[in-house]
Structures are given as structure tokens and as C-alpha cells.
Amino acid sequence: MRFISIFTHEPSNRGPTQAEMAAMGKLVEEGMKAGWLVATEGVSFGTTGLRVHRSGDGKVTVTDGPFAEAKETISYAMYQVRSKDEAVEWASRFVKLHRDLWEGWEGEADVLKVFGPEDFGPPA
Question: What pTM was estimated for this model as a whole?
Fold first, then answer.
């Protein structure tokens, strides 16, 4: 099963420390070698993002960030695991790492199942 975690945190005036980046690198390397981590990347904050919206009448609009959400998306991780519980375990490790090394860090991870062909019945 594949799951993706989207990590967000409360906006702050500083980025991660060198100690946090080193610890994150160690966890990422462990996950890649063990095979549970498929991909992970940091992402730019909402100030450089954009949103594409299609309304009911078919009109497509594009809105540049920043957006009004209170939290900023900071990264994602893609897992290849046996269960949802295992995906939660790995997301928890990433969140704990941030909390332990980034003083005052408050954030969360949304864990979402990534659908594949196996999640749908045979063609009709």
C-alpha cells in the first residue's frame, strides 16, 4: 500500500537548524534503504504556490499565494507500507523529529492513501 503524508507547521520566522536537517537526512536514508520511504521533498511555502480552481460553469481560475490558511505546507513523504498503521508510525517519526529538534515547532501530518489499480474492481 502507498500512503502520502503532507506535513504542515505553524508559520515561523526561521527554517530548520543544521541539527534538524542532519537528523532528517538520517531518517530519510534509513527509510530509503529499508524500502518504506519511496520519496520525500521539502516544498516552498504558500507564498510561492498557486491554486488552480475549476468552477461549476467550467471556468478555470489561478490564484497566486500566499493563501489564508494558518499553517504552511513544508514537505511530503511517500511510503510503501503494509498497513495504514505503519504509515501513521512513520509519519509520527517525522513529526517527533521536528518537535524534538525545532524549539517551539508545532505542526501536523495528513496521512492519505494513494490509490492504485488494486483499489478498484475489475473493468466492467
Answer: 0.77
90-101 burial code (b ≥16 CB/10 A, e <16): bbeebbebbeeb
Residue the block writes with cell 475549476: 54
In a domain, 109, yes or no: yes
Cα end-to-end distance, the chain, whole Å: 24
Give the pLDDT score at 106: 84
Decide if 30 is inside a domain. Answer: yes
Domain limits at 75?
2-119
Q: Is the pLDDT of residue 29 over 60?
A: yes
The per-residue pLDDT for range 82-105, each reduced to its tens digit, is 999 999 999 999 999 888 888 777
Q: Measured between alpha carbons, how far is residue 85 from residues 82, 91, 98, 101, 102 in Å? A: 8, 10, 20, 24, 26
| Alpha carbon distance 57, 72 (integer Å) | 30
